[in-house]
Structures are given as structure tokens and as C-alpha cells.
Specification:
single chain; 321 residues; 60s Ribosomal Protein L30, Chain: A; Phosphoribosyl-aminoimidazole Synthetase, Chain A, domain 2; seven-stranded mixed β-sheet; 13 strands; 27% strand; globular
């Protein structure tokens, strides 16, 4: 069934996500009116997902809806922020109810999980693309940033990096594997942004970034923003059992260079490490120490053969072949 633009908005997006008292005017007017709590700094992030670029063509609509919001939630998590309101710009080849059912249900479910209300946006016809602007807040002066690390700070990552990249390779047929492939696919299709961890890291982490372009590339971005370099210890990488089943060399490659994890990579000064573990036990919060910030610039990986300097440019939409 094909819907009109206004039927589409009314049916799927007028009441999406959480009900919030700080939304004065939401979907249905020229713009939203929102109240930011006193003493808070507004945080804003926007991401666009394009069919065939950020997800495979023909990808499940519920995955597209989930990921469209998850990537923005991950950005706010990296700032230690509390998400609150979302704007959705949706470009569709056709307004097909069957596709929108899955997309809208997954988007709304993740929004509800994190207390987010959809307060506006736009719909238009064209090649499939989804742009989400997410707004939230953080106590004034308390936001996490990429630029606060110092030499000697310990480097951590949440979760098990590399799973999502392997899952995407499976979805695209670039990888064949035996065993638990479904969990790897789920890590790509339905990433779990670490919003709660990001908020709890305020006061402990000196710097933070979300892992979207690959662990090594994003750790280097953090280090560069802080005027430092980074050293990762390959033996410390937290590899999931399904990823290890691909073989140690392949698993390590996915963990270091694969994107789409939407985990948090963060640094903590050594004098805060004991308090971090006491207040936020790693066994509960699911993070692992994987390296150190160092004076020497660049990205360095320590493995069985020693320390190697490696290039870690990360994904670039406009890079040549």
C-alpha cells in the first residue's frame, strides 16, 4: 500500500518515541519548541545514512530504522550527554507501508528505550536516504571531548570491536564462516549505543570518541585531537568468540580496522584508574583496557613481534580508489 506524505507522517511519526514534558511543540508545526533544563549545555549531532553506502541495498527496514538513530545516540554517548529529541529527514523512492512498518517500529522502539521523542523532520521522494539530527544535553562544563587525553593515560574500549564489520562482510557475501554468524550479523544490523556508559564516564574519562570508522582510526583521531599518539596492545583486544572463530589474524584485523561498532573508546588518567574500577566495574560495564596514550605521534600497535607504526586513515567518503 502506498501512502500520501501526510498520511505517512500521521501514521508513523506524529507520536514516535518517548513522551517528554520538555516538548512544547513537536511534530505538526513549522518547527519544534523545546525546553533545555537549566544549567545544561545543548548537544547536537546529525548523521545521514545512504542506501548502498551505509547499509547494503535491500537491507531490512527495521535495521535501517534502528541504525539511523543508533549512530546519533553513539555520538551523544561519546560526549557523555543525555539524548532527548530527534529530527528525521526521510527520503524514500516510494511511501510503501510494508517498508515503513518495519522502519518506524524499530526507530520508535530505540527512541523509547533512550527517552527520545521525535519532534519534527521532513519527508521527500528520491533515492533512499535517512538523516537524523539528535539533540540532548549535558551538565555545563562536563561534556566529554576527544581533546582531553595526555601521555600516560590508559586507553579503553567498550564491547567487542570488529563484530559489526564481520557481520557486514557476511551480509554482503564477502565473508563465509561456520558457527555463530547470526550474532555477528546482529552487531551490524542492530548496534547498541553505549549511552549509559558515556554518561557515567563523566568525571573519570579524560577523552572519549565513538568507534564508527574503526578502533585504530578512531583511537588515532582522539590522540591527534589531544596532541598525542596512541599505542594499542594486540593481545589485549577483547575479541568475541564468533570473531575468534574466524582465525586470529582475521579477527585481529576486523577488531583494529573494521567500522560500525558504535562502541566507546576512552582514556583515563592513571590516578583515576582505581576509582574507575571501584565505581564502574569493568565486568559490569563491559570495557577493556587496550593501550596507552603516548608522546610520540601516530598510531602504534604492539604485538608478538614488537611495536609497529601503522597507518589508520579510517573511512573517507571522498577518498579516491
Amino acid at each position: 500500500m502506498t501512502l500520501s506524505e501526510f498520511d505517512l507522517i500521521d501514521r508513523y511519526f506524529r507520536r514516535s518515541g518517548a513522551v517528554r514534558s520538555d516538548v512544547c511543540v513537536g511534530v505538526g508545526d513549522d518547527a519544534a519548541l523545546l525546553e533545555c533544563p537549566p544549567g545544561m549545555t545543548l548537544v547536537a549531532a546529525v548523521d545521514t545514512l545512504v542506501d548502498g553506502v551505509h547499509f547494503p541495498r535491500g537491507c531490512r527496514p527495521d535495521s535501517v530504522g534502528h541504525r539511523a538513530l543508533a549512530v546519533n545516540l553513539s555520538d551523544l554517548a561519546a560526549m557523555g550527554a543525555q539524548p532527548a529529541w530527534a529530527l528525521l529527514a526521510l527520503t524514500l523512492p516510494a511511501a510503501q507501508a510494508e517498508w515503513l512498518d518495519g522502519f518506524a517500529a524499530a526507530f520508535s522502539a530505540l527512541a523509547l528505550q533512550h527517552g527520545v521523542t521525535l519532534v519534527g523532520g521532513d519527508t521527500t521522494q528520491g533515492p533512499l536516504a535517512v538523516a537524523v539530527t539528535l539533540l540532548g544535553w549535558v551538565p555545563a562544563g562536563c561534556a566529554l571531548r576527544r581533546s582531553g587525553a595526555a601521555p600516560g593515560d590508559a586507553l579503553f574500549v567498550s564491547g567487542t570491536p570488529g563484530d559489526a564489520a564481520a557481520g557486514l562482510a557476511l551480509e554482503q557475501g564477502r565473508l563465509t564462516a561456520e558457527g555463530d554468524c547470526d550474532s555477528l550479523r546482529e552487531r551490524f544490523l542492530f548496534p547498541a549505543p553505549r549511552v549509559a556508559l558515556g554518561a557515567r564516564l563523566r568525571g573519570y574519562a579524560s577523552a572519549c570518541i565513538d568507534v564508527s570508522d574503526g578502533l585504530l582510526a578512531d583511537a588515532l583521531k582522539l590522540a591527534r585531537a589531544s596532541g598525542c599518539g596512541v599505542e594499542l596492545e594486540a593481545a589485549r583486544l577483547p575479541l568475541s568468540a564468533p570473531l575468534r572463530a574466524l582465525g586470529s589474524e582475521r579477527a585481529r584485523s576486523f577488531a583494529l580496522t573494521g567500522g560500525d561498532d558504535y562502541e566507546l573508546c576512552f582514556t583515563v588518567p592513571v590516578q583515576r584508574l582505581e576509582r574507575l574500577e571501584a565505581d564502574l566495574p569493568s565486568a559490569h560495564w563491559g570495557y577493556t583496557r587496550i593501550g596507552t596514550i603516548r608522546v610520540e605521534t601516530g598510531a602504534h600497535v604492539r604485538d608478538e613481534s614488537g611495536v609497529k607504526t601503522v597507518a589508520a586513515p579510517g573511512y573517507d567518503h571522498f577518498a579516491g580508489p
